[in-house]
Amino acid sequence: xxxxxxxxxxxxxxxxxxxxxxxxPNTPSGQLPILDVITDSGETRQMDESFAIARWLARKHQMxxxxxxxxxxxxxxxxxxxxxxxxxxxxxxxxxxxHRETVLKKHAKLxxxxxxxxxxxx
Length: 122
Prior knowledge:
The chain is mainly alpha-helical. The chain has helices at 2-5, 20-23, 50-60, 68-82, 94-106, 108-116, and strands spanning 34-38, 44-48.
């Protein structure tokens, strides 16, 4: 979602389950997702762990708040999502939902993507 919110160009590569056993040993931790980043020196760096990737992207693209209080609220929302089960209902995350609506209003491309996805509990 951060890639869409920051309106970044990216390629979304999906992996077939049948291909995963051959790919897994070549990943940093044997898990997905992976973000391939081209470094300043031109090398490819593989990043893993979805929330670490999201935070890194958000920070790199000035989306982690403009002051300490905003930063705290963003980190709090990340933490709430991180530590809970995906099936937990939205009413457990009122602050997350409030920020979600704000982001979707500001970023039409992200809103269109979210509309195209299947409905989930989050």
